[in-house]
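The data layer described in this paper is built around a simple, fixed record for each protein. We quote a single record here, exactly as it is kept in our systems:
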Amino acid sequence: MQKHIECLIKGRVQGVMFRDFAQRNARKRGVVGWVKNELDGSVSLVAEGDEATLKEYIELLWKGPLISRFVARVDTINTVWSDTVGGMDDFKIFYD
């Protein structure tokens, strides 16, 4: 079943290649959506895909980018699930 998620990721997630990591891994899994840095140091992410794939993707987000695991740190991922909204065909990074 296709689902939509909205995540707010907190911790040391800016300046550690987190958005690139989120995009690469979403595209590998056929997940569409976007990711962007927030002014408070968190990262916002919206994604759509198969429910099981999204659950796997969230677990991967908890780990963060391999190259940055010694400096990156995910403290929380607040996730809101809903039905698919549609209208997205790729996974994009929004830059400041």
About this structure: Helices lie at 18-29, 51-63.
